[in-house]
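thread: overnight batch results

M.L. [08:02]
morning all. the overnight job finished for the chain we discussed friday. pasting input first so we're all looking at the same thing
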Amino acid sequence: MRFADEARIHVKAGDGGAGCVSFRREKFIPRGGPDGGDGARGGDVIALCDGNLNTLLDYRYQRHFKAGTGGHGSGRNRSGEAGADVILPLPPGTQVFDEADASLLADLVRPGDRVVLAKGGRGGRGNAFFKSATNQAPRHAQPGTPGEERDLRFNLKLLADAGLIGLPNAGKSTFLAAVSRARPKIADYPFTTLKPNLGLVARGDDTFVLADLPGLIEGAHEGVGLGDRFLGHVERCRVLLHLVDGTGEDVAGAYRTVRRELVAYGAGVPEKTEVVALNKCDALTPEVAARRQKALARAAKRPVLRCSGVSGEGVGAVVAALLAAIGAATQPAPALEPVA
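M.L. [08:03]
and the structure it wrote out:
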């Protein structure tokens, strides 16, 4: 299944039904009076958070949605039938914006959440509503009001327990494939991952969702490379696993580059709990691996793990560290110092 994390659609709520002008005309009732019924409300356009979805792909193929028009009133005080609502199922983590003013209309997180995006029009009153002692035969009724109409933008930010971050070609997809049954695209060139991938990691009775996010480069928060579009997915991850390519000459510089982008992006991302690991250690001698691990620990100001997604070396220790970090993530994490 293809992944889509952004979509633009047009929605139109149903118009309200018109009220009816009618008079009661029955045998032996010479002065029946008005009996025009009311029009019904138009249908709403409703967003529903559906836990079974993880992509916005459906909204790439259908972009226009219109709710049902309310039924018109009729004689004998019969009201119209309410217009049918349109339900838009959206994956958890979807934000809904109004394109007119870029305002946030909804942020769907919990499955089952419902938000009305466009409200249906009100039905008009029939002439029976307007009868009074001084107006016993009203000959007018109200038309229904039009339903709301909007251009919307959906923005999906994946909900995951842990997110894989790092420079392109740091081995994130290989690590995800090693710890889960996910099968992301893996190749020996940068920007292999062009869309986020999710995998379920199971260790004993414990499980968590790990997201493989496209690589970040310098200037990503300003739109360079794949841009800040994928930094938004980092916002919804509880903890971060920062993988650094151990075969690179400047592992400290690689770490600082990604950290600067996280700090520049903001939105609470720099304060998230971070686990740092030196990857691809199977391609290094023990002496070189130890030296680069020490340099990376000085830059990160925290312990650094060593691992290899290809050989499996150290993978279990990294997963254990992630489980511990996820368990502690319910407590407020201490703020990390920006990297110079």
